[in-house]
Design a protein that fits this description.
Layout (H helix, E strand, L loop, with lengths): L2 H22 L3 E2 L2 E2 L2 H19 L13 H19 L1 H7 L7 H39 L3 H5 L12 H10 L7 H37 L5 H17 L2 H18 L4 H13 L10 H10 L3 H7 L1 H21 L13 H24 L6 H22 L9 H42 L2 H12 L4 H16 L4 H11 L1 H8 L3 H4 L6 H13 L9 H10 L3 H11 L6 H7 L10 H23 L1 E2 L3 E2 L2 H15 L3 H21 L14
Antiparallel strand pairs: 1-2, 3-4
Helix pairs in contact: 1-2, 1-8, 1-17, 2-3, 2-8, 2-17, 3-5, 5-7, 5-17, 7-17, 8-9, 8-12, 8-15, 8-16, 8-17, 9-10, 9-11, 9-14, 10-11, 10-24, 11-24, 11-25, 12-20, 12-23, 14-27, 15-16, 19-20, 19-23, 20-23, 23-26, 24-25, 27-28, 28-29
Amino acid sequence: MPRTVKAVFLAMPVIASILFVIHWFSIPIFGHVLAGTVYSYLLYAILGLNIFLGLGATKKQNRQAPPWYDYVLAVTLAGIVVLFMFNINDITYHNWDSPPNNWVFASAVTISLLAIEAGRRVGGWGLAALLVFSMVYPLFSSSHFLASHFGGVFFGASFPFKEIVSSFAFGADGMLGIPARMLGELILGFFLFAGLIMGMGGGNFFMNLATSLMGKVRGGQAKVAVLASGFFGSITGSAMANIAGTGSFTIPAMKKSGFAAEDAAAIEACASSGSDSMPPVLGGLAFFMVAIFGVDYANVVVAAFLPSVLFYLGLLVQVDGYAARHNLHGLSGDAIPKWWRVLRDGWVYVAGLGVLAFGLVYMRWGAITPVYATVVVIALQMIQWALRRVVPTKTARPSIKISAGNAWKRAETGLVQTAGLINYVVAIFIGMGLLLVGLLKTGVAAGLAAWIISLGGDNLYLILFICLAFCIAMGTFGLERTAYIFLAIIAVPAIVTLSKTAPEFQAAGGISIIGINLFIISYSNLGGITPPVAINAFVAANIAGANPMKTAWIACRMGAVLAFIPFFYVLQPSLLIIYTPWWQTLIHFVQAFTGVWLLSSGLAGYLVKVGQLNRISRFLLILGGFSLAFPQPAVFGAGLIISLVTIAVTILQKPTGSVEMPEVIGP
């Protein structure tokens, strides 16, 4: 990327973050407060410029300088939005439901097509096709064919093409609605924090911390990968960034320690798939939940904690089983950094996370909290640098010029990370407006919600299973994020309403909004490791030099634990912490912890202190573990009996004197 273009590319997220701060504190500019439509269009103009500069039309172009046509697309997108800003009074007061002239119509069509192309660059042709369909569907949604077929589910109000593109470009159902609120009110500070932390050395810190904690144990390199992905995901909220950031180190290390290439890639892909729901910085789907349902992001952070712990526990158990069956050792002591030295060098990142968690959960500062945390980390970095120059050391210090150059390189890396994270979500958000217009303006969302409820026969468990199947089916085509957006709009409100009438949920007031959203987000995340379009597994396989499809199937098996856990917390609200007393949460967490441990042991074919399991024992332990964690007394009792009997029979069937292989520490 040319130097001037790179400077613009890096400056855009900084300018957008400054505008966010000005907006948040209602700081007047020339006597006017930056808010509403002007603020939304201004952010689209600034960040839209970066979409086509930073996201190549093909995967190959992502590693090259932008071609000439990407400059044209970037300037066109930004230019059109600026033209809209200059006509803001007409848009606001004259309500451009239908374009008043040809240039407005042409501009609305152009920005719609650019939104589709932006969506294609991050979500592939499948997402692009869905956005195109959303744009043309209102043209024939009231046709006699749709009214008389498919039970009339897809029958809705029709609108002329001019009104469709106008609603997208100028209406509250399109890009000025939920996408603009997410962009302008929620995500900027979090991605600024994530990008700068990782660029300034946070990635290396988390890798070293994970190695110091897990390096010595059996299968240490794989457990380091799982733990490092959890740490990394708590900052980025992005599976792709996680794989690129940690996988380039953990996958070669796993291969070197004895893991097959496909297994190493699958472990990293699975561990990174938990990033979207790992607090405190969750993925973009969590912000969509906050924007559309008006829930407090701090409550989402708290609620997502224990489910994430259960997910990474399940992966660690499976990795341990693999290592035990293949007799894989841990690292030698010389290769493992001391944990106290790691914390001494990286305590500023821990402090930043502490400020973020404290501000979100206790002080309830809201979306401005990550900006505070970023300032704290930068200030502490400067203090640490100053102290190192003042305190005498045995080693020679670099000159101030060299230190300043290194600091600028870290800052530049952080801005690149920030721009990349923001680019990805802006490209999705701007196209989301077309999907919302197609669902909301036609009224078909209500019909689809009623259809899902009727398909499940008003049975809440069956409806939840239908949502699971829909997410997985969409994920097989690489449309996992689209699956969540679709179900959040049409299914979540209906499920919450229905659950309030279900006897088992009446005492809790029904299934919580946060719980059902995390349920759908979790199953949407499975799309990244579900063949045939398992993008997370494919990226990890590329790093490992492994067979992509074989890696995807292994990742799908290892990630199977993710297919069970959401049922536990959506049906047992105490696992979300925020709805029940602490002692109830503790009891149910221990129950779920035990169930997930046994379930994962069955999936891995190995149980600690028992040894390897045959096929029957594995199946029974999976069934027993799931039932043990399931929040219904009768099912829990059955699971307890199945698990105890299976373990007892397995031990009795082992030859006399047979003992479990001890865990090996070091080579």
